[in-house]
């Protein structure tokens, strides 16, 4: 009896563990509603201001986001500004709510439980979440709203093509781009000068970067005191390098998952991965390359690395860390080969919306969704956070020109994004976590000399394909 | 009357039972059920899979590595956090004017957020600019060397848990009757002998509680790898629950995640049963 009791008690103590994995349900159907006609009751009478109101009562819109710290403040300022201006005109009140760093994960959990009622009206999501989210029955694509042509505040043409492509799945724009970034080379101009390099002419290719690393690396005996370059090559870095080769490279089949389910990587069979590895070998051979990122921002700020490769979203952080202690700059992401024209992918998040069966809420959500992509919201948010505006028209305005002239580190990011081929994007590879781990481990082994070039190539291709194949096997319709 | 008396105790546990049924028992049983099916990324059951999901997980080197990592973490973190807390509790046993100050200092770690602590340790562990390497005059890559990354993560956990363990142990030690310690003094026992023969047996129920709770907590640990290492380098800090989390939310593979959750449950259950067997031999309630 005592034994049984002990067993039951032990099981009871830890039973909740098993529930950790619980999340799925066989329910997937949401209460479907076609894109409704906007309410017109308030459009017929009253003063010009009153005619804009969606309803007699304020329409409430719930908005989930994943911004923290300064970025969260910038976002909340934009939401408050909406509530005080456009929101007031239309009778819309938006309530923002922080939902952790991965909103797509939260939406997915609700979708699996069939809990459509608790979905937000509008949500900020990273681009990787788009394929799953676009499958929810209550999802409404901006593409469909543009097709209806009603309540257009943000013309479709105002969205930069590269940013639009980031959030395009199966030929539909699925989100309004919002907080976007691109990958850049950060470099220490003073260390460049000290090494006899031209600080106004940073490396343009990986080979040039390898030469610079050799000159920039400082050693005390055998110990490196200043690394020429710090970057840990994971999925994000690799797909930008390979994606920019030639005119562009999709990385995987079905246009890198944007035309349909990505079932394999293509960078093995088209030779683009090997082309990249051939060049990267030169960087490793310098002996001044640090292949792991401990605290990449701080180490660059302390001049322990002369160059670093990071997202443009780090510009604001580096400004804070470095201040006036030394002169630094940003430059376009070094190409694999000088003749490459692809450029880089757009990173970051976009805004999606859901139809929860209330026509007024849907209309209000559409207005708010567009507002966040408008010139005012983009200018305010981007100048406060360091993200790159996605609104083409904003760049024609004097305030943006002034901002860029005062923030030269942003110029390289903007120019690079504008000059890139829209087809260069991070793939919708679904098993992103596994692919990131595979690339990280294999590239680290290559950099540390425990794996040769061919093995690194083969392992990345084969292991990524194994993971994709397993996913497709279960999920292909 | 007799019948209602029989029912009465069950009514007391009913609220808790309902709570556990909804939030633990039902999802747990459902998880077990779903491990025998193929489930797609939308959570839809596609086909009966038998034991395929278990076989897949148990032959996945990443999962096997995470089992080993979890064992290393538990073996390092659980006893060390209790042992250090015990030493501190013995030292702090005697009440003095400054007791409140050092008792607060020793227990302060339980008031620290795990994510904040992790970020502070990340800077301290930095091989180039970190405090630890500077103080020790070494050049160790604490979080990026696969050989020692799990040890580094475990040390953070030890630091975090010392405060909680210290509070319980201090209360237990102060509950040891003074006359017993006095008798030991008269018999000429030194501090080690007093701790081993008098204090430890008398505080064994508290130690047992701390062992059980820390085992359960540490086997299902995933927070530190999520914040600090993403399971790397080379999977060296991926724990069983981190594996489950990554499969479910990083790769949308609920098949692996469900099976990993149930296997982790079994591991925890075994650890609990072993602990309960220790209770029979080593815990004194008198």
Tag the structure with descriptive keywords.
heterodimer, A: 477 residues, alpha/beta, D-Maltodextrin-Binding Protein, domain 2, 2 domains, 6-stranded mixed beta sheet, 21 helices, 14 strands, B: 286 residues, mainly alpha, MetI-like fold, two-stranded antiparallel ribbon, 12 helices, 2 strands, globular, signal (chain A)
Topology (elements, then pairings):
The complex is a heterodimer of chains A (477) and B (286).
Chain A: H1 2-18, H2 48-51, E1 59-65, H3 69-84, H4 86-90, E2 92-98, H5 103-113, E3 122-126, H6 130-133, E4 139-140, H7 142-148, H8 161-166, E5 168-169, E6 172-173, E7 176-181, E8 183-188, H9 189-194, H10 206-216, E9 218-220, E10 223-230, H11 235-243, H12 253-257, H13 272-285, E11 289-290, H14 296-301, E12 305-311, H15 315-322, E13 328-332, E14 347-354, H16 359-373, H17 375-385, H18 398-406, H19 408-419, H20 432-447, H21 453-475
Parallel strand pairs in A: 1-2, 1-3, 10-11, 10-12
Antiparallel strand pairs in A: 3-14, 4-14, 5-6, 7-14, 8-12, 8-13, 9-10
Chain B: H1 2-34, E1 37-39, E2 45-48, H2 52-58, H3 61-91, H4 99-107, H5 114-125, H6 131-136, H7 149-174, H8 178-186, H9 191-219, H10 223-229, H11 240-250, H12 254-282
Antiparallel strand pairs in B: 1-2
Helix pairs in contact in B: 2-12, 3-7, 3-9, 3-11, 4-7, 5-10, 7-9, 9-12, 11-12
